[in-house]
Design brief:
By secondary structure, the protein is mainly beta. Helix content is 0%, strand content 22%. The protein has a domain of 29 residues. It starts with 37 loop residues before the first strand and ends with a strand. About 8% of the residues have low confidence.
């Protein structure tokens, strides 16, 4: 045997995948909390409301 690369040949990022430091899982999740989302609620009458969880902005669109 020689002084080959360790990690079983998993590639340059290691066994955890790219950008994960070879440890896998959700290592960078703490830097992205709290998570924000856009919610769209639709009603049977054709009206829908879009809500941004980051800033609380909400807008309702009415069917014309």
């Amino acid at each position: 045997m020689g002084q080959g690369r360790q990690g079983g040949g998993a590639g340059p990022a290691g066994p955890g995948g790219a950008g994960r430091g070879g440890r896998g899982g959700m290592m960078g999740a703490a830097a992205h909390t709290p998570a924000h989302y856009i919610r769209i609620s639709a009603r049977e009458d054709g009206t829908f409301t879009v809500t941004n969880s980051r800033n609380g902005f909400e807008k309702t669109y009415v069917k014309q």
